[in-house]
Amino acid sequence: MSVQDKTAGKRRGQALTGALAGVAVIVVLIVVFIAIQTSGDDKKDTTPAAAPPATAPATSAAAEPAPQTAIDPALQEKPAVEAGGAGKLDKLVVTPIIVGTGPKVVAGQTIQANYIGVTYPDGKQFDSSWDRGQPATFPVGAGQLIQGWDQGLVGVPVGSRVQLDIPSALAYPNPQNGQPAGDLRFVVDILAAQ
User: Nearest Cα to 161, choosing from 184, 135, 180, 179?
Assistant: First the structure.
């Protein structure tokens, strides 16, 4: 065996050792990455958000969870929503049904809510997060909802159930995809805000 052959063999051995060390480092990094992802998944809320009554697509919240607010047990049960009657609404009316103890909703926050929407004159239900089995998550006061929601929910404390009687001017401006025209009534439970 010549000196050149010995040198070439030594270099091949060093290259192989270096390659194996590189592969070992990559394996360790992958294991650490997977461990971090797995521990982080325990803290994430993977519940899909239902679509709120919006005039534009709603966004889902992927931010840190808000501090827990004590929620009235009555908010765990679907409310009955009655018709408003034959009269025409000329302004937005927000009626507290249950007053929550949490912080007040601020424009631009994303809220989690259960709701039922009915046509005001006859009480015919046209939408309900309750029927989908999931609360809806959407931004309030950001121009992505009907004006009656954007205006009526700002300032309402988390943990509240409110009735929104919304005149047609603040409801769906161009009703489509099953959205009703005219005056509307919603009962909304605000479960969280962030």
Answer: 135
> How does residue 1 score in pLDDT terms, banded at 50, 70 and 90?
low
pTM across the whole model: 0.66
Of 125, 155, 147, 149, the closest CA to residue 136 belongs to: 149
Structurally, how many domains does the chain consist of? 1
Domain that holds residue 177: 73-193
The answer to whether residue 101 is domain-embedded is yes
98 within domain boundaries:
yes
Q: Residue 116 corresponds to which amino acid?
A: I
Q: How many other C-beta atoms are found inside a 10 Å radius of the C-beta of residue 104?
A: 15
Return the sign of the alpha-carbon dihedral for residues 14, 15, 20, 24.
Answer: positive
Q: What is the CATH number of the domain that holds 174?
A: 3.10.50.40
